[in-house]
Each structure stands twice: as C-alpha cells, then as structure tokens.
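for the record, two folds in this file. i put them one after another cuz i was lazy. first one right below, seq on top, structure tokens after. the second one comes after a little note so u can tell where it starts
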Amino acid sequence: MHFHHYSLQHLSDYLNEQAAGQHIGACLSQNKNELIVVLEELYLRIGCHTPLTYVVPLGEFAKARKNVVELFPEVVGRSLQQARVVPWERILILELEGEAELILKMHGSRANVLLRQAGKIVRLLNQQLEADLSFREQAGPFDAAAIEAPLAPTAGLPEVMARLNAISPIFEKQFARKIHFLMQQGVAFAQAFRQVQQQALEPDFFVVKEANRMRFLLFSPVEAAQAVRISGIQPALSFFLRTHFQYEHYRQQYHWLEKHLQKPLSKYEKVYQSYRQNIARLESERSPEEIGHLLMANLHQIPPGSEEVVLQDFYQNKALSIRLQPNLSPQDNAQRYYEKHKQRKGKLQYLKSQLADIARKREAAAEKLAAFRQIPPPQELPFDQQGFDPHALKALKKLMKQYRRQEKESETQRYPFRTFEKDGYQIFVGKSGKNNDQLSFQFARREDLWLHAKDVAGSHVIIRQKPGQNVPQPVLEYAAQLAAFYSKAKNDSLVPVIYTPRKYVRKRKGDAPGQVAVMREQVIMVPPVRE
C-alpha cells in the first residue's frame, strides 16, 4: 500500500509543499532499476524492482564511491514545477520546467520511470519494458455508482473484493479486509467504503509487522498486530522502507544461519545413531572367540573336509551348529574364528572411539544451535516506534560473523592453499605442482574462475564463483595480480594472465604435476601485487 493511489496523492502533496521550485542536481543509479533524483534540499529514492516497489523522499543519502551511473541527463538543472497523480492510477508525474516530465509508473513488477519531453517518451529507466515507449496518460476506471449498489451485510471477503474491483482496480485486498471488518460490525458497504476512504486521505499511516513481512497501511490494521502509527507521509515511508529492509535482512540471515547450524547437528545425530546400532549389533552377535574355543576343545570330533559340524556348546549348554571351510583343517578353522574375533574387537574399538568423537561434535553443534535459539525468530522480533530491537539485530549480526569466520578457518585448515578475500569473494592460490592439481581438480568447482600467468611457470588461482553472479572486475583484477605475483614473472612490471571457467581446464595423460591444457582462455594485463 506504500505505492497505492492514495499514498502517491499524499506524496504529491508533500513534494508540492517541500520541493516545488527546487532544481534537479543529478539523477543517479547505484542499484539495478533504482533511481535517486537529487534535488536541492531532498532526495527522491525510486525503486522499480520486485518484490518491493517504492517512492520515498529522503533528507540525506549516502552516495556510493563506485558503480554509480548518471541517468536522465536531460532533466539535470531543471526545476520541479509540480507533482501530480493520474486520477485513479498508481502513476506520479513530476512536471519540470521546459515541457519535461518524469513519470513514475508504480505498477508492481512492471514499475518504471519514464522521461516525457514535449509529449513524447524519450527515455526509460528499465529499458526492457519497451511497451512503456508508447505510454499514454489516461485516468484509471472508477465507477461511483457501484459504491451505492446494495451488498448483503453477510457478504464474505471475496464478495467485498469483487465489489471493490468493480469500483476501481486500485482497491486491493487490505481495503477489502478493512471494509469487510466494518460490515461485520453492522456498517453498510457504502458507509464502510467512505469511512475507509476518509481514513486513507488522512495524514496518519501505520507500519505493521506481520509474520513474514512488513506492511504499510493507510488506515488502522484490522487484527491486533505489532503496528506503529506515524504522522506524515515522508517519515512514514522512510520508517517503512528502513524497517522493511532490516526485517528482510534479519529474516533471511536468521533462516540461513538456522539451516546451517541445524544441518551438522542432524548429520552428527544420524551418524551417532548409526554407530550405536552397529556397536549394538556386533555386541549382540555370538563371539567368534568362543566358537574358536569350542572347535579347539573338540578337534577329535571334527571330520576333515567338513562344511558344518554340530558340537555341544558348554557356554550355553546346548547343541550348536558351526559352519566350516572344508579346505581347512579343524585347527585352521578355529584360527579363522580367532581372526574374526580379532577383527571384530578392533572394529568395536574403532566404532566406540568414533562414537565418542561424534558425541563431542554433536554436543558442540547442539551448543551452537542453543546459543542461536536465544535470538528471537523473525516472527517474535520486538518492534516498536523506534523500529526493531537493536540488541537482537546486533546479536544475529555477531553470530553470522562468528559462523563465517569459523567456516573460513575450517576451509583454510581443510585445504592447504593460500587463501585471500576480495569484496566477499574467496580466492585460492596453489603452493606447488601437486597442490595446484589438488586445487584445480579436487577442490575447484566447474564454474569457478581459473587463472594462471601466461606462458610462465606459476601457481594456479581459483576464484570461488557465486551462483547466478558474474565475478566483478575488481575481484578478477586482484586475482590476476596474485597469479602474476605467484609466478616466474613476479618481477615484471606488467604480466599477461589467462583466465577461464575451471571446466575448460583439463589434465592430459602424462602431464607433469601442475601442467594442464586450457581452452577458451581470455587474457588480462596486470602488475604483480602482493596481497
């Protein structure tokens, strides 16, 4: 509801009061499908991406040091004449001097920012939405007569939703829930509609914390919930956007950490139970040593070449059938059972030792999970006028840092490579020919990026790839500098370094340690630099 027609109307009034006459200093983008309009005394942050589309005026904004793109140069230096909302639409238009307009089309997954000059669309923020080039301003449908049409007091939520859609598509489910709630209190539909509409036009807003999301409402929530009431569209939108991103970050990190802490505990528990069952099975089986004793005590009763013999078991005082190897003598058969006993005893000792080790690891994993459980889950995260509980946010952040540090230390211990890090990417460097082979063909994944100084001996270098992302240029350059430094060309001023996905690197039969064949290579020139 933060980009509802009525929300945009409040925002339009705010901009006309606070920003009319101000000149645009720049239009910047440092995130995909996000635009920052820099005015003289405020910033307008516009997000045109899912799952959250937003328009938020900000008093301050931290510009990134890199990866910032300047967009819509045509509007820079122009002043804002007025802001207006297309009737019954989710479209906010910023009218600028010189017949230029920035059109903020807040249509969910099809949201976009359009530049219109002299009545023609000349530029888009999201250029993939080519249909916006033929955008025509048009008021949305609104059927006032449908408000007065009778609706049964017992109508359910689907019927209320259908009636609202008949009035105008801008009225979504939260309007329907509020109106349906009032109708259950005995208020007629038309009266309930006007009450909710009046609340939506008032400058009081509600930011509500639900189980899995934050919600922005133009009226008080229907159900009892953790809600904060805020006066003024600018502080309300700013508070909502901040808490939304905080909550999403907290929720994602919480579930990620919970999964990765629960996984080893489940694994250790499964292995622990498996060892216990194997130990119990071995201990419940008849001792091979006792069978060996029975055979030795009855050698004279065992015919040579027998496959089976029945002897009196003096341990359990009953007859016992014993399987034999016919090609072995009775003494050798007894010795075979003694060997089985020795193997069984060694296996039991090994299993019990492993069981104790797994028990320690299971206990350590359980302690980590128990410490994690002290942090409130997302649905129980305290929320009030100040936002979320800062102690809970800091506690989760601290645990995440501890976990990632322990994982990095564990990986370093597990693999004997030089390890580096750049902008969140892990980089591994081989130490020798055999170590290079281990790095490239045992440790590296197919999609990891492989690097090596061109035409000289040197270390293999691996950049651990992140799924669905391309390795940033600064990370590639840093890894290439490492490849140059850990090579025979380390003293050169500029070194060519080849790189390719690891799947295009192969080991041929007869290749010496560290020697490989490379396909589809690319080359980058870098100076050798130590970390």
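(here's the note) second protein begins now
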Amino acid sequence: MIEAYFESYEKTIQTFPPIQSYSLYKKIYNVKQGFIRGMILFDDNARLGNCPKTFIPLI
C-alpha cells in the first residue's frame, strides 16, 4: 500500500514541465495508527504532498 501511494506521487511529477531535480520524502508517520506522510520537494523548493492533517490510512 505504501509503495503504491508514493508511486502515485512520482506519476504526478510527469504532468509537470521538465524538472531538473526533486526529492521524494517518504515517512511512516505513526506505525501504531497506520498513517503515512509523503512529500515531493522540487529544485525551487516548491512542495507537493499531503499536509499533516490529511494522512491516508494503511489497509
């Protein structure tokens, strides 16, 4: 589930104009409650990701 979630982030990048660099930040935020958090940081410090209050539960 986690890898599929972050794969959707990486596919989203393909819709943007050419980007020279980006990093994909992956973190299991709360293992006990089953939440994840992710963010893509682009070379100009723009961000694409979920905010701390909109986690997606693991199944």
